[in-house]
Amino acid sequence: MKRVILLAIIGLFAASPVVAQTADRTPERTADVSDVEELKNVSRLPEAARDARSTGTEEEEIQNVVKSVQEEKLTPQEGANTIKIMKENTADGVSNKGISGYVVEQKAKGVHGEELGQAVKTELQARHRIRVEEQEGKAERKEEHTGKEADVQKESGQKAKSEAKAADGGDKREKGEGEQPHEEEPAPKKKGKGR
Amino acid sequence: MNKRVFLIAIIFAMVAIGCSNGKEVKATDQKMIEKVAHIAALLEVNEAKALDMLTNEKMSVEKYKEIITAITLDPTATEKFVQLKRTYVDQYKK
User: Fold this and answer.
1) In whole angstroms, what separates CA A188 from the centre of its chain?
2) Distance from CA of B92 to the nearest CA of A (A)
3) CA distances, B84 to each of A45, A143, B10, B53 (Å)
4) Contact between B9 and A4 (Cβ < 8 Å)
5) CA B59, CA A123: separation in Å to the nearest integer?
6) Tens digits of per-residue pLDDT, A8-60?
7) Helix B61-73 to helix A36-55 angle, to the nearest 10 degrees?
8) How far apart are CA A147 and CA A141, in angstroms?
9) Inter-chain contact B79–A33, Cβ cutoff 8 Å?
10) Which pLDDT score is estimated for A170?
11) Helix and strand totals (H; E) in chain A
12) Are A37 and A31 in contact (CB under 8 A)?
């Protein structure tokens, strides 16, 4: 009986790692010559991300693109291209906010490869234009507003001055300092003597 | 009764040890970064050797992709990977 128990323990000890490994791992394919291109594309992701980070590209967008590659929503090549476009945009001063969602959306619609890259560029440029126009519009409105305020202030200032003058004039009359200067009527013309 | 309990406890411990042996090394560990940096460098210099290394390391395409994307999500790991890859490429080209 004791031998049986001992053998059972040894057997379990030997078998449990194998069981654990096979339970954890789903069947995966070993690398083949046909996989070389895919492996190369995957290998380019870290460099693309590093370059983008060094130019100041939004970290959130980089993370979202890489996660999309992990979840197989994007191919590694599309992911690397998207990150490269984001880096170029950042260098041009264009924001990449929200572009990772747009890329996945377009991919789901069936846009892929170079077309996807082009769609991303176009979208980023369009968003940038809208933002610039909005900012210009805001600046104009601000100028108008400050201009109007300045006019209003001018008018109120002038009004205050004229009121102050009127008040001063009234005070002077009361004190008898003299009349306010007024326009004198022109003297009547004398008729000529030589007639 | 005590013997049975003891036996069950041992069996449970063995299974637990076995399960923990099945855990994989974290993608952003230094050794893993070095490994995949080697493979990435070989892919640029000698594709056949890169495939051999993948086979020797018992690493599938999906596994390699998983590790690379995990590294890319971590800025520090990304920096290490890129530097190591460049070093290895220079070494292999010599």
Assistant:
1) 78
2) 17
3) 15, 55, 45, 16
4) no
5) 38
6) 667 666 665 555 555 445 456 677 788 899 999 999 999 999 999 999 999 99
7) 0
8) 10
9) no
10) 55
11) 6, 0
12) no
What are the tokens at A137? 């519009």
**Contact present, B40 and B34 (Cβ < 8 Å):** no
Contact B69 A13 (CB under 8 A): no
| Among chain B residues, CA nearest to A76 | B65
SS3 state of residue A9: helix
Question: Whole-model pTM?
Answer: 0.64
Buried b (16+ CB within 10 A) or exposed e, A98-129: ebbebbbebbeeebeeeebbebbeebbeebbe
Q: Fill in the DSSP letter of residue A50.
A: H
* Beta-carbon separation of A28 and B14 below 8 A: no
Q: Is A46 on the interface with B (CB under 8 A)?
A: yes
pLDDT per position as a tens digit, A85-124: 999 999 988 888 889 999 999 999 998 888 888 888 888 8
The count of CB pairs under 8 A between chains A and B is: 115
Q: How far apart are CA B42 and CA B61, in angstroms?
A: 15
Residues of A in contact with B24 (CB under 8 A): 24
Cβ-contact A43, B68 below 8 angstroms: yes
Residue keyed to tokens 């990150």: A83
Determine the Cα–Cα distance for residues B93 and B8; give it in Å rounded to an integer: 58
Q: For residues A73-91, give the mean pLDDT.
A: 93
Q: Can you read off the two tokens belonging to residue A163?
A: 């009121």
How would you classify residue A113: left for phi > 0, otherwise alpha for psi between -120 and 50, otherwise beta?
Answer: left
